Amino acid sequence: MTKVAVGCAEIDALRDRLDSRAQGGETHIVTRFRPKREAELIGGSLFWIIKHRLVARQEILGFADDESVGSGGGKRCRILLAADLRPVRAHPKRAHQGWRYLAGDDAPADLGGEESDGIDELPGAMVAELSALMLI
């Protein structure tokens, strides 16, 4: 699943926003509609779009109704996410409203780990610049 990080110019702004809602290792976002394929999304990932590219992901833990004040009186859906925001290899993606399904084959790989190609050894500023240029 993909979602635009509205109002976030960089991944650190998104991380700060999500951390402000985090409790017990999980956080959440609220969306207008509940996905019809919610059962198959649990355990999958929500990929965040910033500046027309996929930049990070979080594991989807579940879904719940959200009837919080300020939602216009209508039911909304709360998407429960793992608090861990994992950077991924930058991948171009057009912006859209709401969320969209993402096929598993189209999901970018995480940065770091066994297949990092030494990326995790580069200075943070260099990784950010190479990612902005979509070279990594």
Structure description:
This protein is α+β, with helices and mostly antiparallel strands and 136 residues long. The chain is built from three helices and seven strands.
Summarize the structure.
The protein is built from three helices and seven strands. With 136 residues, the chain is an alpha+beta fold. Strands 1, 2, 3, 4, 5, 6 and 7 form a seven-stranded mixed β-sheet that branches.
Helix-strand blueprint:
Layout: E1 2-4, H1 11-19, E2 26-31, H2 38-41, E3 45-50, E4 53-66, E5 76-82, E6 86-92, E7 99-100, H3 124-132
Parallel strand pairs: 1-3
Antiparallel strand pairs: 1-7, 2-5, 3-4, 4-5, 4-6
Unreliable stretches covering 5 or more consecutive residues? none
Helix content: 10-25%
Structural class: alpha+beta
Ends distance: 21 Å
- Overall pLDDT: 85
Strand percentage: 25-35%
Largest sheet: 7 strands, mixed
Topology as H/E string?
A: EHEHEEEEEH
Write down the Rg. 15 Å
Number-wise, the strands total: 7
Basic shape: globular
Total number of helical segments? 3
Protein traits:
3 helices; globular; 136 residues; 7-stranded mixed β-sheet
